[in-house]
Every structure is written in structure tokens, then in C-alpha cells.
Amino acid sequence: MGSKPMRALLMVVLALGATGCAAPLAAPGPTPHPFPRPIEKRGPDPIGTESATVADSATPLGTAGGYEISGTALRFRGVPYRDGGADPNGFDCSGLVWYVFGSHGVALPRTVSDQARWGEKVDGADLRPGDLVFFSTVAPGPTHVGIVIGGDSFVHAPSSSGVVRVERLSASYWASRFVGARRVN
After folding, report:
1. What is the residue-wise DSSP string for 16-60?
2. How far apart are the C-alpha atoms of 132 and 57, rounded to whole Å?
3. Which of the residues 21, 33, 104, 156 is marked catalytic?
4. Cα(116)–Cα(136) distance, rounded to whole angstroms?
């Protein structure tokens, strides 16, 4: 392995391998297009307090309205639940929200607790399609998220059923666990 051609070949192989490590990690499967642009948050914002804002230098959010957002979410009914999933091969609750909004050019954080800090607080009686609804299911505070589709319904990726589905907000299970709502668009 002391020859110059072998060293050159080894250097090329190592260089190619290094570029693969430098590439950003992406979720398997298709990427939402246009891919979401980062949003800068200003200060902490748990549910029930001030709204998070888009940085002045950030590009504008996507122009999709609530009906477009909820319509996109509905297209994924029946997709299996996958812990940590954030693509049409399988979603967890926050992965579904992240992917749906991202497919409309709206960048959201990836976790429920972080998503619960974005947008403006919305009263539960004033929900509109596309609003995010948060529930306390396994621990205090927001631990589950869904997207309002209108009326008394929301779409989400629950682990209990194994697939993305639509449920009623007024169902006793969800109504008793509701902790807040946010409007992102």
C-alpha cells in the first residue's frame, strides 16, 4: 500500500466517505416540498402565554390556509403509527404535524412540547381548521398533538390505534385531556 496510486485511491475513498458524513441527516422517505424554512423563536412560550414570532429576517411562511393544511393531513388517514416517524411511511403525532405544515412551507419544531410554543394561543371555543390541539396523555403538560379539520373533529397519529385517524374533540377521552390550542398560520 506504499505506492502513490494506492494512496491516491485511498484518499479519494476517504474523501467520498467524509462527504457522506457531512450531509445533514434526513428522515427516510420523501421530504416535504418546499422543505420548511427555519423559524426563529423569541423567548419561551408555553401554552397560554405570549405568541412566538417569526424573525424579521426570516422568509415569509407558506400561504396555505387551515383548510389546505387539514386537507393535507386527511390524506394520511390510515398511515401507520411509528414512534419517531415523520414521513408517509409512518408518523408519530408531532411528526405528522411537522410533515403536513412542512409540505406547505411552514417550518415547525419537531416535538410536541416545542410545537406547543409556536403560533398564537387560541381559545378552545374558537378553533378553526388547521389549528393545533394539544392534550396531556402520558405526563403533565402537552404530550400529544393533532390538527383541527373543522367542526368537532381533528386528525392525529395516535399510538393506541396504530394509524392516522380522525376523532372528535368532544369525546370524553380527548375533552378531559385537552390542554390548549395554537394557530400557526
Report:
1. HHHHHHHSPP--SSPPPSSPPPP----S---TTSPPP---TTSPP
2. 25
3. 156
4. 12
CB 62 within 8 A of CB 107: no
144 is catalytic: yes
N residues, the chain: 185
pLDDT band for position 118 (cuts 50, 70, 90): very high
Residue 33 falls in the annotated catalytic set: no
Residue 28 within any structural domain of the chain: no
Q: What pLDDT, in 10s, does the model give residues 74-83?
A: 999 999 999 9
Taken in order 167, 171, 172, 174, the sign of the CA dihedral is: positive
Res 111: pLDDT = 97
21 lies in some domain: no
Check which CATH number belongs to the domain holding 62 and give it.
Answer: 3.90.1720.10
Cell of 67: 383548510
Rounded to two decimals, what is the model's pTM?
0.69
Identify whether 21 is a catalytic site residue: no
